[in-house]
Amino acid sequence: MLTGTRSGGSFGSNVSGTCPSTRIARRRRSWPKRVFASKRLSLTWGRYNPYTRANVAQTLLSLLVQVAMTENPLRVVIIDDEPLARESIRVLLSDDADVRVVGEGTGSDAVALIARTRPDLLFLDIQMPEVDGFAVIEQVGADTVPALIFVTAYDRYAVRAFEVHALDYLLKPFDDRRFAEALARAKERARARQRGEVDHRIAELLAEREVPRTRFLIPAREKTIVVDAAQIDWIEAADYYVTLHAGPAAHLLRQTMEEIEKQLDRRHFFRVHRSAIVNIDRVREIHPLFRGDCALVLTDGRRIKLSRSRRKDFEALFAQPRT
Q1: Which residues on neighbouring strands pair with residue 297, listed in sequence order?
Q2: β-strand 241-246 against 234-238: which pairing, if any?
């Protein structure tokens, strides 16, 4: 057998005196222990490692949200009857990359503008000459209205209501700091709505207001028609809608009879049967019918049935002096 030296040993031999097959066998026997120790170390480290899968996923989600906020800014609509007030809000928003103004207008424009632009955030003036802010909210719907920042001149009753329900408002005139604080909170609510969270505070605020409606906003093509409650002669049920009859005009409104009955001044409007409400100031004649029913004749000559079950209450209200 050929022999030789390599580093002081013979060919086919090892410094340790063991052949390669023996070393491989020993390594194989030690693999389970090494693998187990490696897994145990990784599991133990995973408890404290900030780069575990859960933490990495959360970090990536936060980054994606930040990117989405930059690429998809919140859509903002400004509703105020004063052009200078709208301009001041627009200027203050111009430096904020998280928002983009998509529309502005007065109270009479509000419902159609909100439906067309679908904003995430709404600056809404409360005291406007044609339509107040609460009427806009009621028309749009408390569940569908975007995140709100109320804008108002001093109205201690409105401000008190906002504070009770923890709603953001800007009291004219407002400074940059107050504006920034209200905007930051409103942006958080807008993002929460995008995630599907529901805010019940607007509905609770409206539920506390028992002031009868004086105007109704009727959405029309590219505009909103304002109908004064005093102009309404009678109201007719039409499935999930109601028809407001005001002189020769008829306006369709998406509300139920129960909903609109609660909004009317009960000193002037009475539900004569399941499908009709009349303005009692328009009643000129009362004609008896069979089985205790009556027919009410309005100033325009229209005849509307008065149910016998409601006749007593109607006569009691009709006899009261008008205010």
Answers
A1: 285, 303
A2: antiparallel
pTM: 0.54
Round to whole Å and give the CA distance between 37 and 294.
94
Q: Report domain 215-318's class.
A: mainly beta
What residues form DSSP beta bridges with 237? 242
Handedness of CA 62, 66, 72, 75 (dihedral sign): positive
The CA distance from 165 to 159, in Å, is: 10
CB-count burial class (<10 Å; 0-12, 13-18, 19+) for 240: exposed
All CATH 2.40.50.1020 domain ranges of the chain, comma separated, are 215-318
Q: At what angle do helices 107-117 and 133-140 cross, to 10 degrees?
A: 30
Tell which residue, 119, 118, 74, has the closest CA to residue 100: 74
Is CATH 3.40.50.2300 correct for 71-208? yes
Residue 15 CB neighbours (<10 A): 9
pLDDT in tens, 22-56: 655 555 555 555 544 444 444 444 444 555 656 66
Asked if 272 and 278 count as a contact pair (C-beta separation under 8 A), the reply is yes
Spatial neighbors of 317 by CB under 8 A, at least 6 apart, are 266, 267, 270, 280
Domain span(s) for CATH 3.40.50.2300 in the chain: 71-208
> In whole angstroms, how far apart are CA 116 and each of 132, 136, 218?
20, 15, 14
Q: Which amino acid is at 102?
A: V
